[in-house]
């Protein structure tokens, strides 16, 4: 992501901790964030094999409350919020009228008419403006509380053992995409069994003022599990191996919920929601492009924005790469891309233009890595 030299980067409450740990800082979504500490592969393997912690405080938090909160959210998102139980989280999408994506979000139901929403860092202001624009004058209260919270992700097979030592609530039986409210190292927190890595993990929302205390405490307590601080680099390779999408890469305001594969959270049987009509029409007519997964056959890496062709002579352009990287666990160079429907079938041969040369790749099924502990 390019950043203007005149644009002042935002700092998370853990910025000084990253510097103290020799984190390599880079611009990301308007924030100064650590891309790595000990190395992307080392951090990636720590999460797959033991436990790692991530600063994800750049993400945004919005609170929706009031007697009209449920109906309001039902009209805004593609998934069925009415099915959410108190203490449960739900992956969701906000769409424009034409079915393209405002953002992908997670909604946490804290009470009958109380919801807590996590939004992407680059979309905080945009999402809040969209929510305000469609908010009824009475019955719903909206609050952008992003500056009040820090978010830390604890991810990996040993994450439950680590977090159990620092919280005052029982989470042994906490199911995937559920959450509890309690204290972490004596600090009030929302403790969610969610994550972006494909491994067993938790994301904790804590007061920004207490973030450093909790970060240092997790590293100290987690030493026996060989916990490692992890940066954006490992976060990207981990999420790509399990096929999780990144807003701004794999989906945005030019792609619809169906094109990027979010049909599974698009509930056409519920009452009307923004974008429903357009998505129903697209479903009826069929998709012209589709997000696919690919593996490189030639020794090369397909990166974001690279053009894709039907043949190695480069005469027929059929799409572009959205994400790509070497996958440490899989041992292959992998990626995701949009291609025309004719080339979206499993096993289809495609050619990616890399530094002026066409490199062979093949369309495969997501996810690339299927043995994670996320639902263990």
Overview of the structural elements:
- The structure is a single chain.
- By secondary structure, this protein is α+β, with helices and mostly antiparallel strands.
- The protein has a domain at 288-364: Beta Barrel (Elongation Factor Tu (Ef-tu), domain 3).
- Helix content is 19%, strand content 33%.
- The chain is built from 8 helices and 19 strands.
- A 6-stranded mixed beta sheet has the order 10-11-12-9-3-13, sandwiched between helices. Strands 14-17-16-15-18-19 form a 6-stranded antiparallel beta barrel. Strands 5-6-7-4-8 form a 5-stranded antiparallel beta sheet, covered by helices on one side.
- Helix 2 packs across helix 7.
- It is globular, with a radius of gyration of 21 Å.
- Residues 1-6 have low confidence and may be disordered.
Key descriptive features of the protein:
single chain; 376 residues; alpha+beta; Elongation Factor Tu (Ef-tu), domain 3; 6-stranded mixed β-sheet; 6-stranded antiparallel β-barrel; globular; disordered N terminus; EC 2.1.2.10
